[in-house]
Specification:
heterotrimer, A mainly alpha (94), B alpha+beta (540), C mainly alpha (104), A: 94 residues, 0% strand, C: 104 residues, mainly alpha, 5 helices
Chain lengths: 94, 540, 104
């Protein structure tokens, strides 16, 4: 559970950044409102992820796990985004 | 001014990182492997039975009987009952007193002994093949090999300090730490290496900071004794006395009168009442068979390495006193750091997360080293300098060669004849011979070819590990998976995963000139990027 | 770090500067870390063992900062004078406090 919440948090946070927003929904418009909603949700979910992890496995162990989750989530999501960009490019290329 | 500061920090980051980066890579690889040391021990000793769980009371009684037989009159006995992955079997350790003045001196190694006890027989575990196991590989993480331990340990301290400087200056240098948080732009040559380096470092930054800083804390007594000694005016005797009082250890002497050692099982029942079940790490018996003997129950470590203990009389079994855990807040921070570094408390999920972070750390060092060369590559057709060639060759031979050498270590464990003399040493010799050869290889070959060939070689070597395992033992994947022995299966499966990864790398390297090919399609992303870097919103 | 500007400036300063700074980072900076650590222990009130543990823990961070400072200062003279001043102040301070505590 903690892992899933942390992943969602990382995803939401990246949606709040223009470059990644465009990689995901490259045709839609990026408004300041969307940006702040996404960033706020991302931060909230990341905080929640820490709490959920700690509730699941105790404070010390939970925090340690959470840092590991964060690591996997951010790295995995960045690779996914990179893959997505290469697909967009391939489709666009003649 | 700010620009100049960043520039100087870039310089510092580059050179602090590069100068020993191959040792650092070696440390990261062996340290990451070390998170599976106990599993590797089991993998490399296929003759041993599966882990044995027996009741704490039975275990100590069995161990005491064994020690009575094998080590009477010792100064200390240590009994570690089997528990989790760290202790698959009941284990004992004993130590004899130093010979008195005037008697013939004895080598320190001859005063100590240890054994693993088979719970089914109550006697020593079958020895099986002579192997260094996962422990030898893991110990290279902090004392290297073939070099004097103390020198190697000190040297590792220096490398760790450079890593620390590298991390801190790296954070200072990184301009867009948040903006580039999720950014990886592949197939863009030098830019991609930097992106990858940043992505790996930033996403695993808490781990890297923790592991490096706690690595330094291990070095406190080696490199920073000056502060403690200086505070006592370099009066070493006084400093020692005061510092050993932290540990709450009170030294005492033998009485000289023999007395029967009390039954240990009731003591464990009492300890369980005080601490709850599963809280005991090991049992230490001071002067067994003497009237003054004492039994200490040491508490199992959580994240923090705790020093709490319960002390009982060794003749009556009565509770005497509690040894409290470390009092000072700073000391307990230090112990928590050490505990986090070793991760002995980690269950399977956290253990994999540790390994994942370790792999990212490894790759962080590797991408940093490759970026160094990618950035300095001369594009005008001029020949590269000698230093550049040196770095390039070391990069190939270490980044690709070391994993292959470790695969060779595993294969040697299976293929060297079981009755061979000093077999355990030869496992390691083979590992370093392979590595040495692979360091030489890129000197003799064009660099792109060397990368490709070594990546293929690594893929083949790791693919061979589970195959050789299946051919020589019954602990192959079919058996381990069907019997649910996932800690052994995980090793074979990891080797397969590594083989696939290296094969993918090799295939990508084979598709040269990949950069130019993809660059032709890149403008859309470039447009995207420039649109993003431009702060004005762009309508789609 | 993101840019690949050639660092001409440093190249011109030359090898002597770098050797001198590396040496400063290896020995005087390490000494300074120790004298500072002892000074800190003797300054901190309360439990001596706790102070030693704290000061030793912090020492690696201090050392790192000193190294970064050494490589960020433009003039070599500033580096050496700074290190010397630091050594005199912290070393002298530590010595003074030790004497005060033990012999006065």
């Amino acid at each position: 559970m903690g892992f899933i919440v942390t992943c969602l948090g990382a995803i939401a946070l990246s949606v709040g950044m223009k470059r990644h927003y465009r990689q995901l929904f490259h045709s839609a418009e990026f408004t300041p409102r969307k940006k702040w909603v996404a960033r706020f949700t991302g931060c909230a979910l990341l905080t929640l992820g820490a709490y959920v992890s700690m509730a699941e496995s105790g404070t010390g162990l939970g925090l340690t796990l959470y840092v590991g989750y964060l690591n996997v989530a951010v790295f995995g999501w960045a690779l996914f985004l990179a893959w997505r960009v290469s697909r967009i490019n391939n489709r666009a290329a003649p | 001014m700010k620009g100049a500061f960043r520039q100087s920090m870039t310089w510092l980051h580059t050179w602090a990182g590069l100068v020993f980066c191959w040792i650092l890579y070696f440390m990261f690889v062996t340290g990451t492997v070390g998170y599976g040391d106990s599993e590797l021990d089991r993998w490399m000793k296929p003759e041993q039975p599966a882990p044995q769980r027996i009741g704490m009371g039975d275990a100590v009684t069995m161990a005491a009987a064994f020690l009575e037989r094998e080590a009477p009159g010792a100064d200390r006995w240590f009994i570690t009952p089997s528990s989790d992955r760290n202790e698959p079997f009941l284990r004992v350790f004993w130590q004899y007193p130093q010979p008195a003045e005037g008697e013939e001196p004895v080598e320190p190694e001859d005063l100590r002994g240890s054994a693993e006890i088979d719970a089914t027989t109550g006697d020593r575990m079958v020895e099986g093949r002579d192997t260094g196991g996962g422990q030898v590989l893991y110990r290279m993480h902090y004392i290297l090999h073939y070099i004097d331990r103390d020198i190697a340990y000190r040297f590792i301290g220096v490398v760790t300090m450079l890593m620390f400087v590298g991390i801190i200056s790296g954070i200072v240098v990184h301009k867009k730490i948040f903006k580039d948080f999720f950014t990886f732009r592949p197939s863009k040559g030098q830019r991609s290496w930097l992106d990858m380096h940043n992505l790996m470092s930033v996403s695993s930054l808490p781990f890297q900071l923790m592991i490096t800083y706690s690595g330094l804390i291990f070095m406190v007594t080696t490199w920073m004794p000056g502060i403690a000694l200086g505070s006592y005016g370099f009066d070493i005797k006084r400093a020692q006395d005061e510092l050993s009082s932290i540990a709450g250890i009170v030294e005492f002497e033998r009485s000289g009168n023999t007395a029967q050692l009390t039954a240990l099982a009731p003591i464990l029942v009492d300890a369980a009442e005080r601490w709850g079940d599963d809280a005991v790490r090991n049992i230490e018996i001071r002067y067994p068979g003497d009237e003054a003997s004492q039994v200490t129950i040491n508490r199992r470590e959580g994240i923090e390495r705790s020093a709490a203990g319960l002390i009982y009389s060794g003749t009556t079994g009565e509770f005497m006193k509690e040894r409290p855990p470390i009092p000072s807040a700073s000391a307990s921070v230090a112990l928590t750091m050490l505990g986090l570094h070793e991760g002995l408390f980690a269950g399977p999920v956290l253990r994999w997360l540790y390994i994942f972070s370790g792999v990212l750390g490894t790759a962080m060092v590797a991408t940093g080293a490759i970026y160094w060369t990618a950035k300095r590559k001369k594009t005008d057709g001029q020949p590269q300098g000698r230093g550049y060639r040196f770095v390039e060759a070391l990069n190939v031979g270490t980044i690709m060669g070391l994993p292959t050498a470790i695969a060779a270590y595993f294969i040697a464990n299976r293929l060297l004849p079981v009755e061979m003399a000093s077999r355990a040493d030869w496992e390691v010799h083979i590992m370093f011979l392979v590595w040495g050869a692979l360091l030489l290889h890129p000197v003799l070959r064009p660099i792109q070819a060397a990368w490709r060939e070594q990546a293929w070689l690594a893929a083949v070597a790791f693919a061979a590990v589970p195959l050789v395992n299946a051919a020589t033992t019954s602990l192959h994947l079919v058996n381990t998976v069907s019997s649910g022995d996932w800690s052994l299966a995980a090793i074979d499966l990891s080797c397969i995963a590594l083989a696939v990864s290296f094969a993918v790398v090799a295939a990508v390297l084979g598709k040269s000139p990949a950069e130019t090919k993809v660059d032709a399609k890149a403008p859309i992303v470039d447009a995207l990027d420039s649109a993003v870097n431009d702060e004005t919103p762009v309508a789609a | 770090m993101a840019e690949s500007k050639p660092r001409k400036k440093r190249g011109e300063i030359g090898r002597w500067h770098i050797t001198s700074r590396v040496f400063a980072a290896l020995i005087p900076a390490f000494l300074l870390t120790n004298t500072f650590g002892v000074f800190l222990v003797l300054l901190l009130p309360g439990d001596r063992l706790g102070a030693i543990a704290f000061s030793t823990l912090v020492s690696f961070i201090i050392y790192c900062c000193v190294i970064m400072w050494i490589f960020s200062v433009e003039r070599l003279r500033t580096v050496w004078l700074g290190l010397l001043a630091g050594l005199i102040i912290t070393g002298g301070g530590a010595w003074g406090l030790y004497v005060l505590e033990n012999f006065v």
